[in-house]
TrEMBL record:
<dbReference type="InterPro" id="IPR001992">
    <property type="entry name" value="T2SS_GspF/T4SS_PilC_CS"/>
</dbReference>
<keyword id="KW-1003">Cell membrane</keyword>
<keyword id="KW-0812">Transmembrane</keyword>
<keyword id="KW-0813">Transport</keyword>
<keyword id="KW-0472">Membrane</keyword>
<feature type="transmembrane region" description="Helical">
    <location>
        <begin position="169"/>
        <end position="191"/>
    </location>
</feature>
<dbReference type="InterPro" id="IPR003004">
    <property type="entry name" value="GspF/PilC"/>
</dbReference>
<feature type="domain" description="Type II secretion system protein GspF">
    <location>
        <begin position="69"/>
        <end position="192"/>
    </location>
</feature>
<feature type="transmembrane region" description="Helical">
    <location>
        <begin position="375"/>
        <end position="399"/>
    </location>
</feature>
<feature type="transmembrane region" description="Helical">
    <location>
        <begin position="211"/>
        <end position="240"/>
    </location>
</feature>
<dbReference type="InterPro" id="IPR018076">
    <property type="entry name" value="T2SS_GspF_dom"/>
</dbReference>
<dbReference type="GO" id="GO:0005886">
    <property type="term" value="C:plasma membrane"/>
</dbReference>
<protein>
    <submittedName>
        <fullName>Type II secretion system F domain protein</fullName>
    </submittedName>
</protein>
<dbReference type="GO" id="GO:0009306">
    <property type="term" value="P:protein secretion"/>
</dbReference>
<keyword id="KW-0997">Cell inner membrane</keyword>
<feature type="domain" description="Type II secretion system protein GspF">
    <location>
        <begin position="272"/>
        <end position="394"/>
    </location>
</feature>
<dbReference type="Pfam" id="PF00482">
    <property type="entry name" value="T2SSF"/>
</dbReference>
């Protein structure tokens, strides 16, 4: 909810503004922390456009832009640059129109008495609940620079992890795409043109050549219709991949596949440990930390973490809960978490776990790449080689007949 407030500072100067909060008491507590004597606080039932439509036209912001934005802000806060000036500098420095608008909006909101974290809630498509809560914790503890610095590190690590997996999958994807393109060109355009030549020559075609020719003729005669069907199938597939049910199925399947399952688990464990560590070190209570961490995980891990919150509130240790899910949380993790809970160093030990699984991801990716490359080359060799033979064999027979 949005509240309008009026207050007087220590020097007796009047001040007023708007602030987003859950209740009037939260507004009063925030203003008192700022050293203001509150005169009036009331709900703003007619918010201005900057509050009601701030997120109306949100564009795309890349992971790299988000990282640079966070790191720039952290540097300026640590250097003692006033927040209003910091966001004005960011607005001038960035070329991304969405970040420019965001920085200008936050600057205006700060001048009206709104906090950074409250301003960021207008941009939930850009900044996750995890991000916003870390900033809020930094504001409340007076350690905003440290929270932003850790956020920058977290975002860089997450981006690096995502890039490693993405780059490992690009090579086979490009190879498969190129192979299918070459095979399609041969089957749809080259072979049908040779069909007339083969028919006139009276050469008896091998069974494989006849099958490939039949497929090629069928596709070339209905090329427009098949192209439309392919596009519709691709659009439908993209739509299906965005559904919660599909993501849940892929989540379960990816964790059970050989080699791929090991990679998927290591990625999720690294993300779990690093995010959980960041929220705890920011001073966020453990139950809320787990809720924020769960949002960053896939469906399988999210359900496990979300389900643990209720038991933790009853006093059950996190290590004990996770031990029941040994398929997804190895003993090494539950053992370290158990030690961390008992010694009060859980956030530090979780960071060690995250670094360990980052290295494991690297190792698994290297092994996967070593396996995928020769397998892909063999498959491509059989595919293109088979097509080449289906074309070359009748041509060779035709040449032999012509020379007799």
């Amino acid at each position: 909810m949005l509240y309008k407030w009026k207050a007087v500072d220590k020097e007796g100067k009047p001040a007023e503004g708007r602030i987003e909060a859950k209740s009037q008491n939260e507004v009063l507590a925030f203003l008192k922390k700022q050293g203001l004597f509150v005169i009036a606080v009331r709900e703003d039932k007619h918010p201005s456009k900057i509050y009601s439509k701030a997120s109306g036209a949100i564009g795309r912001v890349s992971d790299v832009d988000r990282i640079i934005f966070t790191e720039h802000l952290a540097t300026m806060v640590r250097s003692g640059v006033p927040l209003v000036d910091a966001f004005e500098i960011i607005s001038n420095d960035f070329n991304n129109p969405t970040l420019k608008k965001l920085a200008n909006d936050i600057k205006t909101n700060l001048e009206s008495g709104k906090s950074i974290s409250s301003s960021l809630t207008d941009y939930k498509k850009i900044f996750s609940s995890f991000y916003i809560n870390i900033v809020r914790a930094g504001e409340e503890s007076g350690k905003l620079d440290d929270s932003l610095r850790k956020l920058g590190i977290q975002l860089r690590k997450d981006h690096a992890l995502k890039s490693k997996v993405h780059n490992a999958l690009i090579y086979p994807a490009v190879l498969i795409g190129a192979t299918l393109s070459v095979m399609s060109l041969l089957v749809i355009f080259v072979l049908p043109r040779l069909a007339g030549l083969f028919a006139q020559s009276g050469v008896k075609l091998p069974i494989f050549t006849r099958i490939v020719l039949a497929v090629g003729m069928f596709i070339s005669e209905r090329l427009i219709l098949i192209s439309i069907l392919v596009v519709l199938m691709m659009v439908s597939f993209i739509f299906i991949t965005k559904t919660r049910r599909f993501k849940a199925i892929i989540s379960k399947l990816s964790l059970k596949l050989p080699k791929i399952g090991s990679l998927a688990k290591n990625v999720q464990l690294a993300r779990f440990a690093r995010t959980f560590s960041s929220t705890l070190s920011a001073g966020i209570p453990i139950v809320h930390s787990l809720s924020l961490t769960a949002e960053t995980l896939n469906d399988t891990y999210r359900k496990i973490i979300d389900g643990s919150s209720h038991e933790i509130e009853k006093g059950v240790s996190l290590a004990k809960i996770l031990k029941r899910h040994s398929e997804f949380f190895p003993n090494i993790i539950t053992g370290i978490i158990d030690v961390g809970e008992k010694t009060g160093t859980l956030d530090e030990l979780l960071l060690d776990i995250a670094n360990f699984y980052d290295e494991e991801v690297d190792n698994v990716l290297k092994n996967l790449t070593a396996i995928i490359e020769p397998v892909m080359l063999i498959i491509i060799g059989f595919g293109i080689g088979g097509l080449a033979i289906s074309i070359i064999t009748p041509i060779y027979q035709f040449i032999q007949q012509a020379t007799i």
